[in-house]
Amino acid sequence: MSALDLSLLGLLWLAYFAFHSLFASLWLKRHVAARWPGLMPAYRLIFNVLAVILLLPPAAMAWWLGGDPLWRFEGIWNGLRFVVMGLAVAGFAWSLRYYDGQAFLGFRQIAASQQDIGDQERLHISPLHRYVRHPWYSLGLVLIWTQDMDPARLLSALLISVYLFVGSLLEERKLMVYHGERYRLYKQRVPGLIPLPGRHLTKAEAEALLE
Q1: By residue range, what is the domain housing residue 135?
Q2: How many CA atoms within 13 Å lie on the side-chain side of 131?
Q3: pLDDT digits (tens, 9 = 90+) for 136-192
Q4: Spatial distance between the Cα atoms of 185 and 38, rounded to a whole number of angstroms
Q5: Radius of gyration of the chain (CA)
Q6: How many Cβ atoms are within 10 Å of 71's Cβ, its own excluded?
Q7: Is the entire prediction scored with pTM above 0.90?
Q8: How distant is the alpha carbon of residue 165 from its chain centre?
Q9: Phi-psi bin for 180: left (phi > 0), alpha (psi -120 to 50), beta?
Q10: 3-state per-residue secondary structure call for the chain
Q11: Residues facing 196 on adjacent strands
């Protein structure tokens, strides 16, 4: 594997991140709503489909490049990492019950012919949200860093981790626009990606904040 190969892989990831940030931005949503309001009901669904399709090239290249392993989980550590990965996947599955899946995928917006961008990012404080503001990002980081690593995977893991952190900040800018003081209070109490002792909400506190 050459430096050129890794550079091309990095550029693919950066191009994907640029697309994802642009299409998730309030600026583009407002622009589309103003110029082509008829597209807005399908905006979320189109975004999700493109996000999956455009993820395939960098992911496939990382798998294809491979390379000599930098480290591997062996013995008891290999078993332990599968336990941790299983818990992360279970966390994803469990958290789905607290989301509106139809709205997340974009079907509800189409059914309602929703042409504005108002409050498309609902404030969720699920049990996991009481401990970190972005539980899916946190669980994603767990899955990323419990893999055996070769140069291509390590580069991908580093870039994805940086983007998840930056993406969480960009997402919170939107949530502050939508939810204002309520989200500011939530940010004061709950850490972003890594749970911290004493920094969480009780169930009653979360319910009071949502009210």
Answers
A1: 3-210
A2: 13
A3: 999 999 999 999 999 999 999 999 999 999 999 988 988 888 888 889 999 999 999
A4: 36
A5: 19
A6: 10
A7: no
A8: 9
A9: left
A10: CCHHHHHHHHHHHHHHHHHHHHHHCHHHHHHHHHHCHHHHHHHHHHHHHHHHHHHHHHHHHHHHHCCCCCECCCCHHHHHHHHHHHHHHHHHHHHHHHCCHHHHHCHHHHHCCCCCCCCCCCCCCCCHHHCCCCHHHHHHHHHHCCCCECHHHHHHHHHHHHHHHHHHHHHHHHHHHHHCHHHHHHHHHCCCCCCECCECCCHHHHHHHHC
A11: 199
Assign 125 a pLDDT band (cuts: 50, 70, 90). Answer: confident
Give the pLDDT confidence of 38-53 residue by residue, as tens digits: 888 999 999 999 999 9
pLDDT digits (tens, 9 = 90+) for 67-87: 888 999 999 999 999 999 999
Q: Into how many domains does the chain fold?
A: 1
